[in-house]
Design goal:
Layout lengths: L11 E8 L6 E8 L7 E10 L2 H8 L13 E8 L13 E4 L2 E3 L21 E2 L11 E5 L4 E2 L6 H4 L5 H12 L17 H8 L5 E6 L4 H8 L2 E9 L13 H7 L2 E4 L5 H12 L7 E5 L3 H4 L9 E5 L6
Parallel strand pairs: 10-11, 11-12, 13-14
Antiparallel strand pairs: 1-2, 3-4, 3-8, 3-14, 4-5, 5-9, 6-7
Helix pairs in contact: 3-7
């Protein structure tokens, strides 16, 4: 297979393939055919992909059926362009990211009305759930959802931005938080988180709290620490059987708002990548080869850095 520029694409690729979806899942490295592209798609040769906690939830079956190739934090270059692609973004050699949102229609009532939120597109397609993900050397991206990334930044620094980084950044925007934290508390070391917050802030509670933990108790504790007209931003997803216990009076009396925040769109990714380009953010990463994934997949919460999987001989 050759791209429109004459760049040669090999006849097969290496991918980490999910086996036995469920609590005893595993990954095996297989040689697979290179995916073919339709006229309005591009083929991306990935350098690296991050390995996100959502992959564990998918592999365990907590989020329903999924693809056997997971992954949604890919970074690489366009290697082939479909015959009907006309946009400037669809250029062989362009550095792009492949995130959780693989495609959005741009024309449904959520994308193209006053809401204008492609991250919740009614027809959206998710990497690793609806289409094969980024734990493979090659993947296919619709021309309309190409996500360009800044050049001259190591790919392993950009991969964490594609899901974990942009999700955190988007949550900050949703919470309308303009400054960084001034007080740090470890909830595991506090008998009463609310009392600890009041002590450290001289009697003040929080104007906004972003809950990243996938536990119902974390959301409940957060509600108890919000000030008048505070905002709870829900990001972490508890297990499906978990329920959050609250009484409406706490919302009514304090004027508290609860809002959900999902992975950011292409604009959010571009903004988040700028923090890395300007070296205002430098992700800590643990780099491994694709053949090592099986040994690391179950340890993502133990690592001192984001797990980034090399998909080719070089990172860049």
């Amino acid at each position: 297979m050759s791209s429109s520029s004459g760049q040669r694409v090999p006849s097969y690729q290496v991918a980490a393939v999910l086996q036995n979806q469920g609590p005893k899942f595993s990954f095996e490295t297989h040689k697979l055919a290179i995916p073919t592209i339709n006229p309005q798609e591009v083929l991306v040769e990935l350098n690296v992909t991050g390995f996100c906690g959502t992959n564990i939830s998918l592999a365990c079956g907590y989020l329903g059926p999924c693809q056997t190739i997971l992954g949604h934090e890919g970074v690489g270059r366009i290697s082939a362009v479909g015959s009907s692609c006309t946009s400037e973004a669809a250029t062989v050699g362009r550095l792009v990211g492949v995130g959780w949102i693989r495609d959005a229609c741009g024309s449904c009532r959520v994308c193209d009305s006053d809401i204008k939120d492609e991250s919740r597109c009614i027809e959206q397609v998710f990497s690793g759930r609806d289409v094969p993900g980024t734990l493979a050397r090659y993947t296919v991206v619709p021309e309309r959802y190409i996500t360009p990334l800044p050049d001259r930044i190591p790919s392993e620094m950009l991969a964490p931005v594609m899901c974990a980084g942009v999700t955190g950044y988007k949550a900050l925007k949703v919470a309308n938080i303009a400054t960084g934290a001034e007080v740090y508390l470890d909830f595991e070391n506090e008998d009463s988180l609310r009392s600890a917050v009041l002590l450290k802030t001289e009697g003040m509670l929080c104007s906004a709290i972003i809950v990243c933990a996938g536990a119902a108790s974390a959301h409940e504790q957060a509600l108890n620490c919000l000030d008048y007209h505070g905002t709870l931003v829900a990001v972490g997803i508890p297990p499906p059987a978990s329920n959050i216990s609250l009484h409406p009076l706490s919302l009514i009396g304090y004027g508290i708002q609860i809002v959900g925040s999902i992975a950011g769109d292409r604009v959010d990714i571009a903004e988040a990548a700028e923090f890395v380009r300007k070296e205002l953010v430098k992700p800590r990463v643990t780099k491994i080869g694709i053949h090592e994934l099986e040994n690391y997949a179950g340890r993502v919460n133990e690592l001192d850095g984001k797990l980034v999987v090399r998909l080719g001989p070089k990172v860049g």
